[in-house]
Specification:
Layout: E1 4-7, E2 14-22, E3 31-47, E4 53-59, E5 61-65, E6 71-75, E7 79-82, E8 88-92, E9 98-105
Antiparallel strand pairs: 1-2, 2-3, 3-8, 3-9, 4-7, 4-9, 5-6, 5-8
């Protein structure tokens, strides 16, 4: 299995990379597993999707925000559920990489 990776620039994202750990091409019929790394000061801008997200924070500190400007602190070992069509974005507020796994259904 080859792991695809690359930088994210959509949604005004900065200092962010993604790795597709499992996807449809790997034989996963229902879900994709992705690993995100956001460098200190980096972000993924607020956006939404038709699919839900289940997130597990592996390392670092940051915040998740919605389109109303509400922010919630996140840290290693936190879990996050993002419902379908819920605006969300991430900011690394710490001194080390913010690393998380994100599972999405394949639609």
């Amino acid at each position: 299995m080859s792991i695809e990776s690359g930088n994210i620039t959509i949604y005004n994202s900065t200092g962010t990379s993604i790795q597709w750990l499992w996807a449809k091409k790997d034989g996963a019929p229902n879900f994709a597993l992705r690993r995100f790394v956001i460098e200190p000061g980096g972000q993924i801008g607020v956006h939404d999707h038709n699919e839900e997200h289940e997130i597990f924070i592996l390392a670092g500190n940051g915040s998740i925000a919605n389109d109303s400007g509400d922010k919630y602190n996140i840290k290693a070992n936190d879990t996050i559920f993002v419902p379908p069509n819920e605006p969300h974005g991430y900011v690394n507020t710490g001194n080390c990489d913010l690393v998380f796994l994100c599972i999405i259904p394949l639609m």
